[in-house]
């Protein structure tokens, strides 16, 4: 979402960091470019004006002008200001009552219904017992959608197609939740194409009677300048407690994320990063600011990898690499884990300088699907024993089975052999130095060893090695 803004800011700061000292003219020119970049990203013009004024005042301070690395210090000022603009720290949900009620509000088409299911799934993973209420009585398809998502992902859904009173439906849901010992009730309310008095009255009445712990505004990241108006109307009417930004994986410019927090004073609590049920993430302003400024977000990448890759699986894979027994089954599993992380293009967003490093290189995540098709066309024996794939007849059968050209199959096998050879060398180095270490990939990317120390030398061998080193030092 922030790709264009990130590119423009990086170009601006590249000019600053190349200077030995900063002057008022340097900073003035840089702030002009930052202002244009933010306006182009659809950030509200009043917020841009305030932001630039604050950053400029800080950058003109004596601390920056006389800094050892003034350009880097100026980037730090902008980073801190972006964090402040988006909320400074992660804001968790508040759970006061039992059961806690969360009202999901927003305009029609913002992704409320899907986000309701995503939030229920997210809280379920944290051990919360959740009941979802299909309370969009104006759109029967929303009830169907929520019920379907509930069946698919084992999320309890309360609905009443015969009822017409929203408050009664929510009241019944709270009674059922209390009886079944649920922790949280999430209510998917109706939206409108635009803010109107009928919608406001309905939601205000529901708020009074349901006593919610949270009122979350679900907003499309592509709202742009309109984000300020939408956020203001909902906040004035309901006094919202937080924001969920949806569709940030699309081509939105990001202005909503930088505008809504400043206007409402309430934090962005979650962001929707895809269409799958697990594609809802807690929002961390410091991490997002780091990504906007091209500094990556390794912490989030490690957290996502930890959710995807179990410690036992990492240890098993490490042992296979060390023993040079890595096969196509392992390779297939690593592809699945990479897909869960969002594909290579998504991973690059988290790596410092990742996008810049791969600039000009065509990264097609669709190729992962082609590779997966080729692997699926292999027999279990072929995947477990890649060395038998040296015959043309086998390769031709695989190509016909997956509908890919023979040359793609041959290239995949060749790349796999090369990668396996490199892993074998790394395994031997690990034996010599007594550990895998970060250079083997650590916890950051699937397909590599777990980054833990591997004790491969016996106590007798270690003693002999220390004795030899001691003798060598005496000779010197």
Keywords for this structure?
single chain; 476 residues; alpha/beta; Four Helix Bundle (Hemerythrin (Met), subunit A); Rossmann fold; 434 Repressor (Amino-terminal Domain); 3 domains; 8-stranded mixed β-sheet; 8 strands; globular
For the sheet with most strands, the description reads:
8 strands, mixed
Overall number of structural domains: 3
Q: Please identify the structural class as seen in this structure.
A: alpha/beta
Biggest sheet strand order reads 3-2-4-1-5-6-7-8
Mean pLDDT: 76
Radius of gyration: 27 Å
**What are the segments in which pLDDT stays under 50 over at least 5 consecutive residues?**
430-460
Helical fraction equals 55-70%
Beta-strand content estimate: 5-15%
Could you tell me the number of beta strands?
Answer: 8
CATH class of the largest domain: Alpha Beta
Identify the CATH homologous superfamily of the largest domain. Answer: P-loop containing nucleotide triphosphate hydrolases
Number of continuous helical runs: 22
- CATH fold-level label of the largest domain: Rossmann fold
Helix and strand pattern: HHHHHEHEHEHEHEHEHEEHHHHHHHHHHH
Strand and helix layout:
Blueprint: H1 3-17, H2 24-40, H3 45-59, H4 62-65, H5 70-86, E1 100-105, H6 112-125, E2 130-135, H7 140-153, E3 157-158, H8 166-179, E4 184-189, H9 197-210, E5 214-220, H10 226-238, E6 242-246, H11 255-264, E7 268-272, E8 280-282, H12 285-292, H13 298-308, H14 311-322, H15 328-340, H16 344-350, H17 354-357, H18 366-376, H19 380-384, H20 392-402, H21 406-433, H22 459-475
Account of the 3D structure:
Mean pLDDT is 76; it is low at 430-460. With 476 residues, this protein is of the alpha/beta class. It has 3 domains: 3-86, SRP54, nucleotide-binding domain (Four Helix Bundle (Hemerythrin (Met), subunit A)), CATH 1.20.120; 100-301, 3-Layer(aba) Sandwich (Rossmann fold), CATH 3.40.50.300; 303-440, 434 Repressor (Amino-terminal Domain) (Orthogonal Bundle), CATH 1.10.260.30. Helix 6 (112-125) packs parallel to helix 7 (140-153). The chain is globular, with a radius of gyration of 27 Å. 58% of the residues lie in helices and 8% in strands. The longest helix is centred in the C-terminal third of the chain and has 28 residues, at 406-433.
């Amino acid at each position: 979402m922030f790709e264009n803004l990130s590119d423009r800011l990086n170009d601006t700061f590249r000019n600053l960091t190349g200077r030995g000292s900063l002057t008022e003219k340097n900073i003035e020119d840089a702030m002009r470019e930052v202002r244009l970049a933010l306006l182009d990203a659809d950030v509200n013009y009043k917020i841009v004006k305030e932001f630039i004024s604050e950053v400029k005042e800080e950058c003109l301070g004596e601390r920056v002008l006389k800094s050892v690395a003034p350009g880097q210090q100026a980037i730090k000022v902008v980073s801190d200001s972006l964090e402040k603009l988006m909320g400074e720290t992660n804001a968790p949900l508040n759970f006061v009552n039992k059961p806690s009620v969360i009202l999901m509000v927003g305009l029609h088409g913002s992704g409320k219904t899907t986000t309701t299911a995503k939030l229920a799934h997210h809280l379920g993973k944290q051990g919360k017992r959740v009941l979802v209420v299909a309370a969009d009585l104006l759109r029967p398809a929303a009830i169907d959608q929520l019920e379907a998502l509930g069946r698919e992902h084992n999320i309890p859904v309360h609905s009443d197609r015969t009822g017409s009173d929203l408050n009664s439906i929510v009241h019944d849901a709270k009674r059922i939740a209390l009886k079944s010992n649920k922790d949280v009730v999430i209510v998917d309310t109706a939206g409108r194409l635009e803010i109107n008095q009928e919608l406001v009255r309905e939601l205000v009445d529901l708020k009074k009677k349901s006593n919610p712990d949270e009122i979350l505004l679900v907003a499309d990241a592509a709202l742009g300048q309109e984000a300020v108006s939408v956020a203001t109307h909902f906040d004035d009417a309901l006094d919202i407690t937080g924001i969920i930004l949806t569709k940030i994986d699309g081509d939105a410019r990001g202005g909503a994320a930088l505008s809504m927090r400043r206007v409402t004073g309430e934090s962005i609590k979650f962001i929707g990063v895809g269409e799958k049920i697990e594609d809802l993430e807690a929002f961390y302003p410091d991490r997002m600011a780091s990504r906007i400024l091209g500094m990556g977000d390794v912490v989030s990448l490690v957290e996502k990898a930890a959710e995807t890759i179990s410690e036992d699986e990492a240890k098993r894979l490490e042992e296979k690499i060390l023993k040079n027994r890595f096969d196509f089954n392992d390779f297939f599993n690593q592809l699945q884990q990479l897909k869960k992380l969002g594909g290579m293009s998504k991973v690059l967003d988290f790596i410092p300088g990742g996008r810049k490093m791969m600039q000009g290189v065509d990264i097609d995540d669709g190729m992962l699907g082609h590779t997966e098709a080729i692997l699926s066309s292999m027999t279990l024996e072929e995947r477990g024993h890649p060395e038998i794939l040296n015959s043309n007849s086998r390769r031709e059968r695989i190509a016909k089975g997956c509908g890919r050209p023979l040359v793609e199959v041959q290239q995949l096998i060749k790349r796999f052999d090369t990668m396996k050879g490199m892993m074998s060398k790394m395994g031997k180095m690990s034996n010599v130095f007594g550990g895998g270490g970060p250079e083997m990939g650590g916890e950051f990317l699937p397909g590599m060893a777990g980054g833990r120390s591997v004790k491969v030398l016996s106590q007798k061998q270690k003693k002999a090695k220390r004795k030899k080193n001691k003798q060598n030092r005496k000779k010197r």
